[in-house]
Design goal:
Shape: globular
Distance between the termini: 34 Å
Strand content: under 5%
Radius of gyration: 22 Å
Number of strands: 0
Number of domains: 3
């Protein structure tokens, strides 16, 4: 059992830096979990002990059953289904981490992930400054020059999450020097996602984090009277507004290019990143209206997109295997049933996170928020990096930290 837990933590730590490492780590975790008699004895407790695991299993089973009626070729449908096999790690993580063991596995998961994210951030900066040319994703073009292990989409989202993670850890620590260091890491991560990696998804998440942070700080200062409260609030708003302004209007700002890309698509039928997203959303909505109950089956998006745009050209003929929106992707594959199952999974995760103590709760909520927001413009559960980070981080936190939280809540005040 200890081996299974160790491989689960290792897999989580490797998500930001190694695809091969995640594949190997998750395979070893699965083998150790299935070989553990203790894990098998806990199967009967899953129904009452983990709604998240049940929701994940039901969603995967629904996708598996949809292969039978998928409009995609059988091999393509199965290949697409296998991209969702990460959902099966939720019940395995429950079986492995849900126990009477007082070891705080969640803390190890958090600090190990924090370390690899900081490593990625440092290398991103050194690549951007031209000091290094490190990483499989690094390129000579301005947009890819800072890339290390991931591109600007995955890397940007993880840098935005590092902001949340660093601030949550800073609030939880009692040592002043460590707190200052953690706030410094969070600030560097914020600058990184806004001005270095420039991934739009990460930038939007970071801006949302800043807005939430200002509101929370204003709420905490409500018991102060006089100018102190308003000076602090206005200073926070001014700093955040300045960062957002420069992110929108800086050189090569991807956020600033959003309106231009949409206009070019609509007026010139040009294939642009935001323009084709609008086209994908339109097609997905049309497909969802055609089969609103059970959809077209797993992996059916490309087949149906090709049918809809057979006579189109330019940006309106752009093709992809997913609509870059996880909710619409579920809708096309499984209809409203799929959307409901996916939302149910997210809701059950939020409910189970309520029992966590800080910083685990803030970190879990932080990535859940980033994940849901990111799913509006990307298929993050389908994606390898973001999906595995979601499953392993949330799974280890809600199961590996639960016993410690229960003990605290049961302790006399």
């Amino acid at each position: 059992m200890i081996l299974a837990r160790s491989f689960a933590l290792l897999t989580l730590w490797l998500v930001p830096i190694s695809t091969a490492g995640v594949n190997l780590g998750s395979a070893l975790f699965t083998l150790c979990a299935l070989a553990s008699p203790e894990a098998w004895r806990r199967v009967r407790t899953m129904r009452a002990g983990s709604t998240v695991s049940i929701a994940a299993l039901i969603l995967f089973v629904a996708l598996a059953l949809s292969v039978a009626y998928s409009s995609a070729p059988a091999r393509e449908a199965v290949d697409f289904l296998l991209k969702y096999r990460k959902l099966l790690f939720f019940p395995l993580l429950f079986l492995v981490f849900q126990s009477d063991d007082d070891t705080n596995w969640a803390a190890g998961a958090i600090w190990g992930l924090f370390a690899t994210l900081v490593l990625s951030m440092v290398l991103t900066y050194t690549n951007a400054f031209g000091w290094t040319a490190f990483g499989p994703m690094h390129g000579a073009e301005p947009v890819s020059k800072p890339w290390v292990f991931k591109d600007h989409i995955s890397g940007g989202l993880m840098m935005a999450f590092l902001v949340c993670m660093a601030f949550a850890l800073a609030r939880a620590t009692k040592k002043g020097a460590v707190r200052v260091l953690l706030y410094g890491v969070g600030t560097l991560a914020l600058i990184n996602v806004l001005f270095v990696l420039k991934g739009r998804t990460g930038q939007v998440v970071a801006i949302a984090y800043m807005a939430i942070y200002v509101v929370v700080q204003a709420t905490r200062l409500r018991h102060y009277h006089g100018p102190t409260r308003w000076v602090a609030v206005l200073a926070g708003v001014a700093v955040c507004a300045a960062l957002v302004f420069f992110a929108l209007h800086g050189k090569d700002s991807r956020l600033g290019e959003t309106t231009q890309e949409i206009t070019q698509y609509e007026t010139q039928n040009k294939n642009t990143s935001m323009g084709v997203r609008i086209e994908f959303y339109r097609r997905s909505t049309e497909l969802l209206m055609e089969r609103p109950i059970a959809g077209y089956g797993a992996g059916s998006v490309r087949t149906q997109f090709e049918r809809l745009v057979s006579a189109s050209t330019g940006g309106r003929a752009a093709m992809a295997g997913n609509p870059h929106n996880e909710f619409l992707l579920m809708g096309v594959q499984l209809g409203l049933i799929g959307v409901a199952l996916f939302v149910w999974l997210l809701v059950t995760i939020r409910r189970e996170c309520q029992g966590l103590a800080d910083p685990e709760r803030s970190i879990a909520y932080g990535y859940l928020f980033a994940f849901v927001l990111g799913c509006l413009a990307n298929s993050l559960l389908l994606n390898f990096t973001e999906g595995n980070l979601f499953v392993f981080l949330i799974g280890i936190l809600i199961y590996g930290a639960r016993r410690r939280v229960d003990d605290r809540s049961a302790a006399p005040s």
